[in-house]
Description:
By secondary structure, the protein is an all-beta fold. A hairpin with a 5-residue loop joins strand 10 and strand 11. The mean pLDDT is 92. The protein is 3% helix and 42% strand. It comes from Meganyctiphanes norvegica.
Amino acid sequence: EQAIENGRAVLPCDINPPISNDEAILVLFYHGSIGTPIYSIDARGGSIHRAVHWVDNSTLQNRAYFDMAAQPNGLVIKPVLASDHAHYRCRVDFRASPSRNTRVQLLVIVPPKHLMILDSNESEVSGLIGPYPLGSSVTFTCQVNSG
Length: 147
């Protein structure tokens, strides 16, 4: 999965049971190698659609929710931060079927913060550049700073 910094990411997690008379009772999302969940849906006491959602605000800071209506289902993170770039794992426990694990790598694309155009003397140029004599050779260099 890919997302642009400050955009929206969906980490897919299929909560549909493999057999028709089963249902999801627990959904857990893990971030990187952290052994504790960063997001959970606990439906052990009833329906998944009325279950309690919990989010680890030290990681997700109220930026995440689980979208059950989307296809595929998944954890939505908005806005995406550069620090969200990581491996994620979704575990779904069912009443009768074996647990399902889905792994996803989220690649966060950080757009350039500053762009500089340099002339052949390595001086920054901007706006209207020139004039240059007809037939002359002109060299420009583009430097990008993403930090």
